[in-house]
Amino acid sequence: MKKFGRIACLSFLLLLFCNIHAWSIEERQILSKNTAVTFTSFLDYPPFSSNGERPGEFITIFQPFFDGFSEAYDFRSHYDNYGTYDDLILKTVRGEIDIILGAYFESERYNGIDIIFPALIVNPVSLVTMPDNGLQIKTKADLKNLKGAIDSREHFSDYVKNDFENYNIESFDTSEKLYEQLFIGNVDYILTSRYYGAIEQAKLGIRNMVRMSKNSLWDMPLFVGTSAIKPRGKKIAKMIRDYLSVNKTAIKQKVEKALIEEIRKADEAAIGVVPPAYVK
User: Fold this and answer.
1) How many other β-carbons are positioned within 10 Å of the β-carbon of residue 143?
2) Which end of the chain is less crowded, N or C, counting CB atoms within 10 A of the terminal residue's CB?
3) pLDDT tens digits, one per residue of 36-75
4) How far apart are CA 49 and CA 62, in angstroms?
5) Helices within the chain (DSSP H only)
6) What is the end-to-end Cα distance of the chain in Å, rounded?
């Protein structure tokens, strides 16, 4: 019996040693130089991030974080932008992608993602109206008796989408159709995230023909996220928290600068664009 007990004890200690050894190997692999780390983000949500016009091109205002974090830990890094955005979220949960940039807090879409504070940037939702429609909208309560519209392609957080249900809002699949409804008077207002709205208005050549509220009606912070269920994701999350604790101010400033630059490029590209001739 004593012999059996010693064998059981030795087996337990051996198993414990093997687990610790495996854990330490994994940790060294994650922390070692030239570890390959994969990032992803929105595929169709400029200026935050989107696939470019050329094959394999990916444009994102989160590039300063992407570069700075990779350099700080000597990582080899690259983007994964293959599949749908929901595919990329699931790949992040499974640990096939290490980091997702631009995730919303407490949104069902990101279940299984460890949301890392603080946010890299805030995505404000603003009100767009025609300058001459005479509407006096100062608070969300003023929207109750009006008709609104949104772009179905926008990425809204759950708490914003849930709040939309309190209003008479219709969604449209293209910017052309969305803004046509405003111009011809079928809707009183459009709700759009300020920066995405600015990009889409520039593409249509109507930036100076509509009015966008200076104050936001909702704010949607955008965070970095990793897998909440994979050991590798948890370790990288700790490294990100350590990195942001020192560099958050500088990174936020660089991300905001990149955002302003993308909107400037959109405005520059829109010079000479003939606005659509919306007719009711």
Assistant:
1) 21
2) N
3) 899 999 999 999 999 987 877 899 999 999 999 999 998 9
4) 8
5) 2-31, 63-72, 85-93, 158-164, 175-183, 194-204, 231-269
6) 92
Contact status, residue 109 vs residue 89, Cβ threshold 8 Å: yes
Beta bridge partners of 225: 100, 115
- Rounded distance between C-alpha atoms, residue 246 and residue 237, angstroms: 15
Q: What is the pLDDT of residues 138-191, one digit of tens each?
A: 789 999 999 999 999 999 999 999 999 999 999 999 999 999 999 999 999 999
- 175 CB-near residues (< 8 Å, 6+ apart): 151, 200, 201, 203, 204
Distances (CA, A) of 237 to 55, 101, 165, 232, 267: 31, 12, 34, 9, 36
Q: List 49's β-bridge partners, or say none.
A: 45, 60
Encode burial over 267-277: b for 16+ CB neighbours within 10 A, e otherwise.
Answer: eeebeeeeeee
pTM of the model: 0.85
